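Re: beginner question about structure tokens

> Can someone show what the tokenized structure looks like for a real chain? I only ever see the sequence side.

Sure, here's an example I had lying around. Input first:
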Amino acid sequence: MTINSIVEKSKLVIFDSYSTILSMKRFLLFFYLISISFSKAQSLTSEELIEAWSDSSLYQTISYHKTEQDLYKNFNNKNALDMVKKIELHLREKPDIRISLRLLMYSEAIFYMLNMKTDQYSMNKLKKAIEEDVKKIGDEQLSLELQSVYNEKDYTYDTIKNLDDKYKVIYQQEKIGEKYFPTLYRRHFYLSYRYYGRQDFNKTISHAKKGLVLLEKDKNIVDYKVYFRLLDLLGACYNEINQPEKGLYYYTKLDQVSNDFFKNNRKPIYYFPGDHNTFDWSIVAKGGIGQALILQNKCNDAKPLLTESYIKSHEQKEYYNEGKVLALLAQCDFNEGKYKEALTNYDKALTATNLTGADKNTRLKTLLGLSKTYKALGKKNASEKYFTKYIDEKNALKTNQDNPNETRQSEINKAIKTKSIVRLLGIFVVVGLIIIFLLVYLFRRYKKGAKLSLREKERKLKQKDILIEKTKEEQIKVQTQIKEFKNKLEEKSKLIEAIESQQVDSEELKALKSSTILTNEEWEIFKQKFIKFYPYFILKLIQKYPQLTTAEIRYLCLIKLNMSSSQIASTLGISPSSLRVTWYRIKKKIELSEQIQAYEFVEKNI
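And the corresponding structure tokens:
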């Protein structure tokens, strides 16, 4: 279970003022609050809270407001939960609808401090309190306070009509007397913020001004969170309705107030966990001043301010303001005819709006700016693409404003579709896992079979190596015998040459000259030995040149043994001239050129 899920479940405990059992959910919230608790402790005790909340006079809102201020100034998570527990115990013994309703509001303030969004359960509790519980005591002022809390947290149906209905609650509070509602300025702020989101700039200005007037009545302003935002809203609205002088006034004031605030290290009581405690609002002010200057055709004066605002926004990852400033820089570039620079800045602005998903107005301006820039660059297709996007998103925004029920239904359909997709993904994952399991199983079987096959191949290769080794040994033996035979022939040849040179006319010489050294029987013995060393030579001769005689084959075999002409003549028992005749006949038979030698023929062709 994540921290977020713990917190969401724990919210049920905070709001259940009528609970009789401290459930496990409360324990989980208690554990969460302990883990992020602050060092300070609230100064008001549970008894003092009960006493303040028991006030039913016109000053009851002021009494409750003081308890909220104490919570904001000295917030301590653990202590806040202890307070809630003690008051719930008190309500068990002495049920009191007024105290229960104040506890409900106080619980909302705690979750606001924890930067937690109000869930549907809490909204239903508030709605029940307004429609049923508060009617039991017939307190209009308390009912209006609860309605204000509900309206500030209800973003479901923010059409212009519904916002006008929400203003009626503020109007009723004004009728009772603004002095009895110390946070009425915040009600105007929330309403102006909603109107701005719906681009109703005139109503935004109206409520923002009322909020500003109420806030500035107290010279010692403490709620700077709302003060800065009211100035920003007013400056932005006047720029949007093309009144740059007034926009410049409010943004200049925001710049001055922001610088003064940080310079004097003032401590705001309404900055909570999750708020931008260190955010420099002068960044926003400079961007707004730059926009007002652009509207006055003073781009040269605007650019340095916009550049500074962009750099600081980027450093602090304030993408909302970054996108707005980049769009303004792009507008300056476009006005100056620097279309490529404008395109770059518009692209960056679009990326920033994608990251925030909030500033629809800036996004629409950026899309329209991209369309105009591409058109100026002569890129018609790109221009039409972004203009179509601009129209689609503008219509979608208008649909959201005018038909919230349809939008809500669309969101529900989208959620159902997402759930179906998640289910399908789950099925795909399961099927995928089964397929992976089968593939692993088959792979292992294949691997095992491959190992057995490899062993069998290795065994056969080993047997083949043994056979090759034996064959090599036999070849070496045959080669040795042929060498010995060749040496014997050389000795005989030398003997004959020696006898001839000495001109010894003996019976022995006559016998050598008249005998054939390589007889038919000797040829058969020689041929068998020759075939072992050159197994395919004679076969190739016969297949390739079937017209050759046995004597001619013998001659070529001796050529293959690199024997000299005299050695061959002695071996065959013929004269060297007869050898030349034999070679001449061979060339004629197989149609060889006159220049080719016997040794060359044997090496190249056989």
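Each token stands for a local structural state, so reading them left to right follows the chain. The longest helix spans residues 404-502.
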